Amino acid sequence: MARKGVAKHGISIRLACVVYGISETCYRYQAKLSGENALVADWLLRLTQTHKRWGFGLCFLYLRNVKGYTWNHKRVYRIYRELELNLRIKPRRRIQRDYPGELDVPTAPNQVWSMDFMSDQLVSGKTFRTFNVIDDYNREGLGIEVDLSLPAQRVIRALDQIIEWRGKPAAIRCDNGPEYISQSLIDWANRNRITLIYIQPGKPTQNAYIERFNRTARHEWLDLHQFESIAHAQLLATQWLWQYNNERPNTAIGGVPPSRLRKAA
Fold it and tell me: Which residue range or ranges hold the Integrase catalytic domain (predicted)?
């Protein structure tokens, strides 16, 4: 536009640059065609064909630090993009969940259970997981399963053990972890006519009862012990869960232990 103003209206270059807000250096700049672009493209093609898992960063560092070329990274990246050499990254599968509704308090035991995972470490540094299940009616802890790995089949086995003495729930609320969305757990729920209520991804408040239980377990059990082994952690979990259900007052249900509210119901 500045060049057109100078050619058509005969104004000075300085005035044209002031009007359009550019410098005279920018006005007088002439792009220099470089014959090295073909060399850069050839190197990039050869590198990406030889090293199929190399991205732009490794290719550029190889050309700069190994081969000694002084090409600017922006120039190399521009050619890299024009050649469409970007690594194909598999996008993360995002599950679309409808809003599960308000988090109501059940009116009787075994209407809705909640389940979730936690993690901690042994003294040796190994990470272990805990599988926690509670009854939303009286916040009673129904079970804590502890092990180094808790796949979907282990989750099903733990739920079957709880159902054997407690009875079958109408629904179970959970998040979208891989163990919960596995086909084996879905088939198990269908066989037992149990509804799985999935919360929306990134919305832990929709599973607030078990999240509050996890916080209590973290502060009053996990943070207060050093676990020598999985058996030691499971023993302490069983002892703490009995105390939580039978002796610890729960402010969410009127300041009484969960077992007392269940007996009253």
Answer: 105-265
Residues 6+ positions from 62 with CB-CB distance below 8 Å: 47, 54
33 pLDDT more than 60: no
Question: Nearest-CA neighbor of 99 among 234, 215, 235, 203?
Answer: 203
Q: How far apart are CA 259 and CA 265, in angstroms?
A: 10
Query: What is the rounded distance in angstroms from the CA atom of residue 265 to the CA atom of residue 260?
Result: 9
Cα separation, 264 vs 82, in Å, equals: 72
CA separation, residue 165 to residues 48, 106, 135 (Å): 60, 20, 14
Structure tokens at 235: 């023993």
Give the pLDDT band of residue 104 (cuts 50, 70, 90): confident
Superfamily classification of domain 112-261 = Ribonuclease H-like superfamily/Ribonuclease H (3.30.420.10)
The neighbour count for residue 81, using CB atoms within 10 Å, is: 11
> Of all residues in the chain, what percent carry a pLDDT higher than 90?
74
